[in-house]
Give the backbone structure.
Amino acid sequence: MSDISTRAREILQRVGAGDPFTGDGALHARSPIDGSTIGRLTPHSAGDVEAAVGAAHEAFLQWRSVPAPVRGQMVRELGELLREHKDDLGALVSIEAGKITSEGLGEVQEMIDICDLAVGLSRQLHGLTIATERPGHRMMEQWHPLGVVAVISAFNFPVAVWSWNAALALVCGDAVVWKPSEKTPLTAIACHAIAREAARRAGAPEGVVQLVLGEREVGEALVDDARVPLVSATGSTRMGKEVAPRVAARLGRSLLELGGNNAAIVAPSADLDLTVRGIVFSAVGTAGQRCTSLRRVIVHESLADDLVQRLTAAYETLPIGSPLEASTLVGPLVDEAAADAFVAAVEQARADGGTVVTGGERVDAVEGGTYVRPAIVEMPEQTEVVRTETFAPLLYVLRYDTLEEAIALHNGVAQGLSSSIFTLDVREAETFLSAVGSDCGIANVNIGPSGAEIGGAFGGEKETGGGRESGSDAWRAYMRRATNTVNYSTELPLAQGVEFL
Ligand code: UN1
């Protein structure tokens, strides 16, 4: 057994997940670090999904009556357990998703942060009192638990995305059924064991968290189940376009976090040192496999040559290799298909008249792993390949002359997740943040588009799907709103002055 496999197994034991492996299961848990199989798992069937939703629904019927601040105790326990197991979980994220150590730990920290937010929120799920037009009446709104929430998550944030949804859903009084990416089952098994322990410690109903593993048919069974009022799905736009109509066909709700094609405008006044650091982290961090990764730089003509030169110099020093090595900044892509897509996009960009300034090829950093050299490609225009999200460290550079032109290029893609401008000019910054500026759900000044904190609402427009998760008032998506009018008078005045009986 390889070191990686042994390490993953030890972590699973320590977090209370035991030994989930079966000798001949159809689901292979593997590591992109060296392409090795860690172990095999048995995927769930459509029937198992039905049973999981049934158990979650039963748990929901009890959980909805537990006072919200008491529900918060379960999420507090979850946060405590995550703190305790932070190093192990972070290492498992590195092993299974290929993130460098600091980013694996950062992802677990993101889970801890959302737990803290949700615990506070458990005392703040408040509605409004609204003035009524009728004497002796009171009108108000209440937020009630919604039901069973399905969470479909992607490989690149294998645990944080679940936590954003689950921590909020649980304090909101919902039960959660999680279908992780088939590429990252082990981190899900680990978190699920931790969440069950949190439920046990807090005295929450056992079935309130459920995990279903598998591929497409498992997701479909979940999406089609009428007992699931909300499907929160994170992944590709292609996946979202399949999920949304199926959920809509039964008039369920979906919360979609789909692709991004995030850009940074670099204006003439930009602080270039800061800009270069911001760009490199956003474009190369997580090997370009964040939905918020920077994919397009739109730079003013006057500093384009200087910027490209500095970026190239920075790219050429980036250590590529095993994410378990402390010095590595660029880990592997998730699998062969991802590396093929990267190489194919670079080729297409070249065919479209682009100039590959640096990178763009496979690297044999660790035998069996899928490593690439991050690429910068100067493009004469925003061709189709630039408008397509390639989930890899591939950065296109486009030049502009006027801010209007830059914003038009910026918004000229189908996705609308995250965005940024580097400028010291307050007029430019505010224009970018205004109604005629960035059309994305996230717009930043002097930081890159990735690495959002959990306090803000997270999500985007257009083909990103419109959903909002995490902070601000995103919790409302996990509840149902009831408007209540109470008549405490002896009369029965009708609204709008209607006379009757
Ligand atoms: C994702 O890639 O699916 O803003 C989520 C960020 C992280 C979350 C990314 N906090 O980059």
